[in-house]
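Attaching the record inline, Q. Sequence:
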Amino acid sequence: MSASAYGRLPVPRLTPALLRLVKTGRVFSLGIDFQEGMLTPGAAMKSYSIAPHLRHGDESTIDPGTAAAETIRMSIHVGTHIDALCHIGEKQDTDGNPASDGEPRLYAGEGATVPASECVTSAGQAHLSIEQMPPIVTRAVLIDVAGYKGVEMLPPAYPIGAEDIRGALAAQGSEIGENTAVLIRTGTYALLRDGDPIYRDAQTGLNLGAAQYLVEQGMTLVGADNMAVEAMPPMDHSVHRYLLVHNGITHVENLNLDELAAVPCYEFLLIIAPLKLTGATGSWVNPIAIA
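Structure, as predicted:
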């Protein structure tokens, strides 16, 4: 699959316009530290676990050299990660409307879907799985909604609406524009860092109206410092379905945006390189912002 065919993501190309975004050369890591037992979206997702299986001093074939290595076990959608377009589907009736008794379908291009049942094998997902996603090199804008509201952290389960997005953009003097990644700061990263289950159970994030507004403004990728980008409850994943299934726009979740906001830095070059995990529904990432 060509790089240009992966949803709304722009073809990765370092252009003069993107280079002009780099004004100080300061580099920000937007990933979180993976920790043993860290919060996950639910019981179906396995948390980060690390087990050394080779220790310095163990017998090895490189004597007098020594080596250490470990095995890591966790679900893809834990910690800072990016969703493949096959991660979320929507049950639809024969007319393409959402229906609880319908057939699960996945994004297959503008205005098109494909039955999810036709897209999986014993080796994992075969349609728009993460190894098909190109590297991401794009303009990005931070929208600090918590900062705009004058708080360190938005309230639990607060639904960020289009009026919040417009107000924050105006206060920052920011514009979205074509082929722009949008990163939403809610301030709730501290809850994940502290292992507070409110981070999972009462998620502050976008509502459907805000997501629709951002797409209208030219957004091609969305990320947030929460677990699902959208507000939860409700748990119907309406924003995921709108963005992934209907618009080919993927998510980056569990970001640490506090350092960017503290500067503040609202516009930057964003680089994300998904791992080539054949058949997977996403990839762990450490997004890099260069200001």
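The chain has a mean pLDDT of 96. Residues 22-34+76-85+134-290 form a domain with the Glucose Oxidase; domain 1 fold (CATH 3.50.30.50).

More tomorrow.
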